[in-house]
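Sequence in, structure out.
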Amino acid sequence: MSFYDEIINLQNIDTQASLKNTTTSKIASIIDKPKLRPDDFLALLSPAASDMIEQIAQQAYKVTLRHFGRCILIYTPMYLADYCVNYCVYCGFNASNDITRRKLSLVEVEMEAHEIAKTGLKHILILTGESRQHSSVSYIKDCVSILRKYFSSIATEIYPLSQDEYAELIAAGVDGLTIYQEVYDQKIYADIHPKGPKRDYKFRLEAPERAGQAGVRTINIGPLLGLANWQQEVFKAGIHAAYLQKKFPDVEVSVSLPRMRPQCGDYEPECPVSDSQLVQSLLALRLFLPRVGLTISTRESAELRDNLIPLAVTKMSAGSSTVVGGHTDSKDSVGQFDISDDRTVDQMRKVVAAHGYKPILKDWHDLT
């Protein structure tokens, strides 16, 4: 059994009817519940819930404060390579895109690490395009051995691996996994992943479980909003996170809700998600899963991110670049997508502090 079996069962739920039939009186009865059921969570994504967003936000603030205090963890991404064998229609690294490709040498990895470390950050997320030829597990392990000298927490956002490969990376010093299903709707998933190994929906969906079984410390999942109906995607992501929390009680589970951003190519999102819908999604997740981490990246505007600090989020990126070598020498590289909030780590630290919260640069130390 895996979450794939759960997804099959979720297909039998008429989410649209449930959303349409939800009333504000039902939302009022849900907000203060100590523990929400999946149908309560779905109700919080309804149009009726959008009419009570202020009350939901107040409760989300209380719940977040109770479980996480006034702390926001700050991290930054580091792109190692942009070679990719997939043809994802929405991605700037699409194998068919005519862009200059690049992979950092180990010397360049150390240069990037040194530059990022000067900001004081101790949490880093390393990313690659999905090409085993150019970004092998062995290469990633070599990069991790360098990064361990500078960072206490190293997470990966790469192609899905086998359980044994995750165990290899964990032994090398990786403690976190970020992997987005992109879209939970299987038909849409097939349509937007026409070629390449990423077309294997089930193998990607089960990757967090393989990493959990291998002993990873943190798992971050989520959909890429804009590819399908936002309510159904957020609902499935929440159920996925709840499943992982139950199956791996010692793992810190987080959810991100990245929205489509401009990228190399001409793809336009089929289902654009507004600021208010994104906020509603985050608040609903907070009430449904009080202990889940919620990440908001620099895909979002500075104004929106600042307003979310006291509501539900627990983790924010800063000083971001989606370009290989973006922290030192990006040369002619093309970013995976355009970021929106280009503030530095120091600027974000000051913003978080100005809101009465503590910016956390390090909350984990590997004693091995």
